């Protein structure tokens, strides 16, 4: 790199400023352009379409219908209401279970014992297995004559006769919950682990010197130190849980008896498969509002912390 | 980390990959100036159908040097997604097969074009294999299908169940009693209704029963409402009976995939299509019976109009696509389709060429079912909605939902769709 | 944004804060618990791998015993042969590799450039743009997916037929529809900005005195110091692209452009042949497993890094 003697310092500074500004815009433009094209425009389009009766394929131009789609969702589309309920059910179970189990696993593999890295890897393995594959695999295992029932029957000496888990309205959603937690918990174990590592060792040492037992150390040192991680873990699981789609589409297609249909699955069914894209857009926006509420709660919680 | 040779090698690999992938797609039409005519079909799960389609295509491609038809096959469950997406993009393949009853929706949306085939040709086809909308022909099929009650003579006779005929089909009570008898005779379930399948099978297989009870999917007087037809007393009677098949254990909510139950001897009767006849004949031979459906009050009914071929309106080589369709309708192909798949050939000329459907064929009677009992599903653009609503509703009913509530809700959903589309101009 | 000052990735590797190991007497039940948990996390995957080698009737026959998890009985690669026989699985794998690699590489470039400008350069509008980018983090993909189908179907694209440029309308059934919407990523930009912000500015000053342009500073000064954040972003974008399902389900129909996840689900929908389906599933899981096992530390670090936001 060769030095280039400047002209007068004042002019060169303004000149440098101008170059810096132009370069900066040049650097952000590709990202901004793409974000606008694939996030900004579709988001506005979602808003606009949700007030129309637009169909994906139609010889007629979309007509403005005001709030009709939203009214329809909450008053005359029982499947949507069922989808909302199912989605909340899924989230209400998955969020605490996955967060709690993740923390327990993190505490387990955070100990200084031989071979702990292997266990960490094993617990994380399902995370890198795609949800589509996981869903296909568990569909097979959940069959009436599948692996789960064979194992159940064998372990209980034939006492427990399993059912066709995904074909019963009462068991389909719990079955999907189990595989979802199985697949996702390793991810949050790692996040908890990162949180655990940020707690200074001195605090533990001090607590041990004070004669605190394991439980007291957890209560007074670990848990308070994990508050920010807790908020993050809860929010990410909640948002992911609200977006439940792949497992449903691959395993049950919303059935039996609507017991597993979810907001996004219903939005795709209406907005894409049945071509009512205006209505589908309205359902997507309702989903967005839910996510927004969760994010706002997160912001409040993090503010209180810092 | 400062020097990143892996990044370079990745870049090279990428470039090579890009070159090979683009090379692949361009390679097909190297040489002559043939125009490619794209084709989609739902038959990915069905090797026999693929075999015949490929044979027709090969013959067509060899018969002239202007066009090359290039097929792609999808699994049936994913086919609707594919067509919807492609139609949205204005990117449908030139040739596509459609289930007969959804054709009006595509014709209404102007994404498919009329076939404009000579009438002398189309007149030879069974009425239910020719798809019409607003007076023009938009689709045509090589075959129709017919459902029948598959059963075994030995089983019926040993249990004292009368073997029905077209002249004297089972009545509702007779049929119901037969199912109970057979269940009690030790079968796991009396009948396999095919409900493992999802999608169009449901309206195709079960709406004819609804019609035989005296109900329907839509009011065919006006095509503007389902009120009364789908939730009136006769429809309710049908749905209650349907539900009771499962509550009484006469049918299974989760039958073995692939229609195996009848072949494995788990059930005594199967409500199944003629495409399954060859397997059943192979298994049971002379013992196999293909019986007319029961008369639930309004006479026996089966669904008519099956998968048919159409042309997309944006096809750049419409001429080639039309030629292909005309070419493919030759009796030998229609017959070949039937020979390979067990389906009912659409023309008499073709039927005469087949072993099974000829005057002395074992499946000859099914041609009669097709002519006498076939009801076309409602030709309205709303059919895709009706179909999914009906499927969902009947699955709910199967799983124990309240019958009247479910049917009322179905009517509301269908009427809402009709209303928000100004009844599709009907 | 709790810990902007801390470079992501530092967190997990440090072992100093691990709790002291339990006494020897407590170890046996601890190991027992760990092993039991391992079995729970491993058994479906092992079942998949093992079943992919067995004919269907053998799979069902073994279900009732431990043999379901052991490569015993009639073993062969027939299921794999069957998959290749029935569908162009290699083609789908190549499609996915291509889409994933291009998305990740373009993403690294585009997002790091933006992150650079947003963290190390002074210009009017910087704060506004940064806030805007962060704000988009709140829009989940599911919200825009449906209208986006409507939208990309109308976008133009330049293609070359030989050397002749042709403008095509509609992006469906293409590679770009699988790639371009996922290149720019607000979270990646944020991670880059955060990391670049932690590199001393004096380095830039020195380079500028030497007469370097901004792009040279980015390339010669900042990028060489930022290996970890590039690895992090690459890993965080790689998995969702490889695994994507909802989007290609709607916009990619033609076999020639189909990615693996759609391919395997289509396969699953054909006549059920479980051995072959397991073989196919194994086939598309192995590449990710190999990448994961070879870059384990980077994986864990990346995911930990995503948790440090807030």
Automatic annotation (TrEMBL), chain A:
Is this entry keyworded Zinc? no
Give the record's GO biological process terms: transmembrane transport
GO CC annotation: what is one? plasma membrane
Q: Which keywords belong to this entry?
A: Cell membrane, Membrane, Transmembrane, Transmembrane helix, Transport
Q: Which Pfam families match?
A: BPD_transp_1 (PF00528)
> Where is this gene product found?
Cell membrane
Q: Which family does it belong to?
A: Belongs to the binding-protein-dependent transport system permease family.
Q: What is this protein called?
A: Sugar ABC transporter permease
**From which lineage does this chain's organism come?**
Bacteria, Bacillati, Actinomycetota, Actinomycetes, Streptosporangiales
From TrEMBL, chain B:
The record, for InterPro entries, names: Bact_solute-bd_prot1, SBP
SUPFAM superfamilies the UniProt entry points to: Periplasmic binding protein-like II (SSF53850)
User: PROSITE patterns given for it?
Assistant: PROKAR_LIPOPROTEIN
Q: Which keywords, in A-to-Z order, does the entry hold?
A: Cell membrane, Lipoprotein, Membrane, Palmitate, Signal
The reply on keyword Disulfide bond is no
- The leader peptide range reads 1-18
Q: Name one Pfam family in it.
A: SBP_bac_8
Q: Which PANTHER family match?
A: ARABINOSE-BINDING PROTEIN-RELATED, POLYGALACTURONAN_RHAMNOGALACTURONAN-BINDING PROTEIN YTCQ
What is the designated name of this protein? Sugar-binding protein
Automatic annotation (TrEMBL), chain C:
Pfam families (alphabetical): BPD_transp_1
Q: Which residues form the signal peptide?
A: none
Q: How does it sit in the membrane?
A: Multi-pass membrane protein
Which key words are in the record?
Cell membrane, Membrane, Transmembrane, Transmembrane helix, Transport
An example of a Gene Ontology BP annotation on this entry?
A: transmembrane transport
Q: Does the keyword Cell membrane apply?
A: yes
Q: What is this protein called?
A: sn-glycerol-3-phosphate transport system permease protein UgpE
Which species is this record about?
Planobispora siamensis
Lineage summary: Bacteria, Bacillati, Actinomycetota, Actinomycetes, Streptosporangiales
């Amino acid at each position: 790199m060769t030095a280039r003697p400047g002209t007068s310092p004042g002019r060169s500074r303004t000149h440098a400023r101008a170059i810096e500004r132009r370069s900066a815009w040049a650097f952000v433009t590709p990202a901004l352009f793409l974000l606008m094209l694939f996030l900004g425009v579709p988001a506005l389009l979602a808003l606009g379409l949700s007030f129309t009766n637009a169909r994906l394929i139609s010889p007629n131009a979309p007509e403005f219908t005001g709030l009709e789609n939203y009214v329809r969702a909450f008053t005359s589309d029982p499947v949507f209401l069922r989808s909302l309920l199912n989605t909340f059910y899924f989230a209400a179970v998955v969020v605490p279970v996955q967060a709690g189990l993740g923390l327990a696993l993190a505490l387990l593999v955070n100990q200084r014992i031989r071979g702990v890295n292997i266990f960490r890897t094993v617990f994380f393995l399902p995370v890198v297995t795609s949800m589509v594959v996981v869903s296909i695999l568990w569909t097979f295992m959940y069959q009436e004559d599948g692996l789960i029932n064979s194992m159940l029957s064998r372990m209980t000496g034939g006492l427990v006769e399993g059912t066709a888990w995904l074909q019963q309205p009462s068991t389909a959603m719990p079955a999907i919950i189990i595989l979802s937690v199985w697949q996702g918990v390793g991810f949050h174990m790692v996040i908890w682990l990162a949180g655990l590592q940020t707690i200074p060792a001195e605090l533990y040492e001090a607590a041990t010197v004070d004669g605190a037992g394991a439980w007291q150390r957890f209560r007074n040192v670990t848990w308070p130190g994990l508050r920010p991680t807790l908020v993050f873990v809860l929010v990410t699981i909640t948002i992911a849980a609200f977006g439940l789609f792949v497992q449903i589409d691959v395993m049950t297609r919303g059935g039996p008896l609507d017991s597993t249909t979810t907001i996004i699955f219903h939005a795709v069914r209406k907005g894409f498969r049945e071509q009512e894209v205006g209505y589908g857009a309205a359902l997507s926006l309702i989903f967005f509002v839910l996510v927004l509420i969760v994010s706002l709660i997160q912001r409040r919680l993090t503010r209180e912390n810092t | 980390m400062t020097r990143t040779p892996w990044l370079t090698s990745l870049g090279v690999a990428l470039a090579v990959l890009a070159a090979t992938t683009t090379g692949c797609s361009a390679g097909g039409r190297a040489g002559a100036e043939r125009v490619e005519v794209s084709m989609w079909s739902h038959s990915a799960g069905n090797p026999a159908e693929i075999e015949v389609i490929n044979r027709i295509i090969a013959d067509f491609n060899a018969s002239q040097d202007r066009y090359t038809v290039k097929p792609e096959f999808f699994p049936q469950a994913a086919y609707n997604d594919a067509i919807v997406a492609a139609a949205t993009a204005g990117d449908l393949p030139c040739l596509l097969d459609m289930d007969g009853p959804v054709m009006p929706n595509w014709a209404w949306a102007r994404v498919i074009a009329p076939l404009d085939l000579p009438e002398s040709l189309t007149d030879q086809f069974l009425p239910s294999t020719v798809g019409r909308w607003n007076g023009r022909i938009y689709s045509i099929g090589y075959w129709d299908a017919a459902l029948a009650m598959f059963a075994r003579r030995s089983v019926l006779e040993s249990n004292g169940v009368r073997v029905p005929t077209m002249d004297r089909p089972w009545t509702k009570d007779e049929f119901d009693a037969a199912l109970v008898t057979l269940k009690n005779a030790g079968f796991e379930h009396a009948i396999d209704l095919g409900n493992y399948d999802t999608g169009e099978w449901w309206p195709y297989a079960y709406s004819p029963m609804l019609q035989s009870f005296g109900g329907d999917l839509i009011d065919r007087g006006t095509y503007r409402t389902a009120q009364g037809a789908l939730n009136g007393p006769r429809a309710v009677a049908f749905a209650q009976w349907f539900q009771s098949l499962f509550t009484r254990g006469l049918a299974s909510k989760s039958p073995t995939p692939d229609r195996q139950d009848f072949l494995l001897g788990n059930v005594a009767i199967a409500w199944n299509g003629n495409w399954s006849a060859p397997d059943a004949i192979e298994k049971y031979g002379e013992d196999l019976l293909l019986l007319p459906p029961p008369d639930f009050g309004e006479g026996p009914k089966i669904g008519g109009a099956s998968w048919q071929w159409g042309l997309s309106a944006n096809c750049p080589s419409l001429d080639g696509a039309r030629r292909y369709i005309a070419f493919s309708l030759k009796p030998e192909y229609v017959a070949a389709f039937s020979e390979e798949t067990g389906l009912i050939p659409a023309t008499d000329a073709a039927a005469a060429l087949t072993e099974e459907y000829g005057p002395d064929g074992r499946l000859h009677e099914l041609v009669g079912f097709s002519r006498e009992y076939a009801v076309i599903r409602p030709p309205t653009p709303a059919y895709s909605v009706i179909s999914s609503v009906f499927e969902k509703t009947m699955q709910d009913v199967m799983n124990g939902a309240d019958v009247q509530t479910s049917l009322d809700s179905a009517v509301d959903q269908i009427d809402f769709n009709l209303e928000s589309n100004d009844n599709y101009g009907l | 944004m709790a810990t902007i000052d801390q470079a992501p990735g530092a967190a997990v590797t440090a072992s100093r804060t691990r709790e002291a190991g339990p006494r020897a007497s407590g170890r046996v039940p601890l190991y027992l618990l760990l092993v039991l948990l391992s079995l729970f996390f491993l058994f479906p995957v092992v079942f998949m791998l093992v079943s992919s080698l067995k004919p269907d009737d053998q799979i069902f026959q073994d279900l009732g015993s431990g043999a379901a998890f052991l490569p015993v009985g009639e073993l062969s690669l027939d299921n794999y042969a069957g998959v290749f026989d029935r569908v162009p699985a290699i083609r789908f794998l190549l499609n996915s590799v291509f889409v994933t690699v291009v998305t990740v590489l373009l993403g690294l470039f585009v997002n790091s450039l933006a992150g650079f400008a947003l963290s190390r350069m002074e210009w009017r509008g910087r704060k506004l743009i940064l806030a805007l980018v962060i704000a988009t983090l709140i829009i989940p993909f599911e919200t825009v997916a449906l209208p986006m189908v409507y939208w990309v179907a109308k976008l133009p694209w330049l293609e070359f037929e030989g050397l002749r440029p042709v403008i095509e309308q509609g992006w469906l059934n293409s590679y770009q529809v699988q790639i371009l919407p996922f290149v720019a990523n607000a979270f990646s930009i944020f991670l880059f900005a955060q990391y670049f912000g932690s590199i001393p500015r004096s380095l830039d000053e020195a380079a500028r005195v030497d007469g370097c342009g901004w792009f040279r500073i980015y390339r010669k000064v900042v990028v060489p110091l930022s290996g970890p954040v590039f690895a992090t972003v690459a890993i965080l974008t790689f998995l969702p692209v490889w695994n994507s399902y909802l989007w290609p389900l709607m916009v990619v129909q033609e076999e020639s452009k189909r990615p693996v996840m759609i391919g395997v689900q289509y396969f699953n929908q054909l006549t059920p042949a479980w051995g072959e389906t397991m073989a196919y599933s194994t086939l598309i899981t192995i590449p990710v497993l190999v990448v994961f096992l070879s870059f384990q530390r980077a994986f864990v670090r990346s995911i930990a890094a995503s948790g440090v936001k807030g």
